[in-house]
Amino acid sequence: MWFKNLQIYRLPAGWDIGLERLEAQLAKKPFHPCGSQDMESRGWLSPLGNEVLVHAVGGQWLVCLGFEHRLLPSAVVKQEADERAEELAEQQGYKLGRKQLKELREQITQELLPRAFTRRRRMYAWIDPVNGWLVIDAASQSKAEDMLEQLRHTLDSFPLTLLRTELSPMSAMADWLAGGEAPEGFTIDQDCELRSVSEDKAAVRYVRHPLEGDEVKGHLEAGKLPTRLALTFDDRVSFVLTEKLEIKRVDFLDIVRDQVDGDADDAEALFNAEFALMTGELVHLLPAVVRALGGELANMAVESQVDSSLAPAPSPAAVTADDPPF
């Protein structure tokens, strides 16, 4: 249980939902496979595969959102509709109109849906009720929104504060590169992306390349700003910080992973050990990132509290080939 990407959100200090209450509310919207006419289904799953929907270890919580999506490409529907339209045109002596073609495609979609293959995936969120963090393991903020929408629809109230810092990640990363020195506790690694703020949006990417030379400083002086920068914290966790305050490509180094007995036969014990180690590292990493960016800008934070009865219906979740199966 190691997160790969961190989309970071803030829970307010007054968020007083307890473990049992959270479990009871998630149980109202469990995951069910797609029905015969459903393109997608989503709901809460047990992170560990048992009956418990909120997995707790050492005061840290883990929840899991399951998705099932039917694979019915529009090209398949169109091909079948075109063939049937030709047959009907021959029988009737004239081509189908636009409205008839639309109705035919809808009919074919309903016929093919029950036979379409399905793809499943999971998305995890770590809740730190002590320090007020909500972290979603998702590659982008748009994908993380699937989790947030489901939480809004599930919980009686879900106040969420967006994390803001005094310094923007872009300006802070530019200062670190220009000065050739990372903030305390961090080291600058060898991956970086610099992008021009002008209309041409020219970009330079460095992969496994030293960043302390004059070349990078020249790009900064020419007006390019860093949008991604690889860093290591405390020689324990490597990651890429983005201009959107995302933490990507998280890699817990051997000094952390070696604390887990990889040969353990007890799958639950291994899962718990990894989760405890991961959250233990992140509890130190996240405040350090905030400090490196000048501290939290609490007075400018944007709060969004949504009543589940008023929330809009969730949009279909994007499914990519990289999404892990169940």
TrEMBL record:
UniProt keyword annotation of Cytoplasm present: yes
Coarse class of the protein's main subcellular location: cytoplasm
Cytoplasm in keyword set: yes
Entry keywords, A to Z: Cytoplasm, DNA recombination
Top-level taxon of origin: Bacteria
Pfam families with a match to the protein in the record: RdgC (PF04381)
Sequence similarity: Belongs to the RdgC family.
Function: May be involved in recombination.
The protein's name in its UniProt record: Recombination-associated protein RdgC
Taxonomic path: Bacteria, Pseudomonadati, Pseudomonadota, Betaproteobacteria, Rhodocyclales
Name of the encoding gene: rdgC
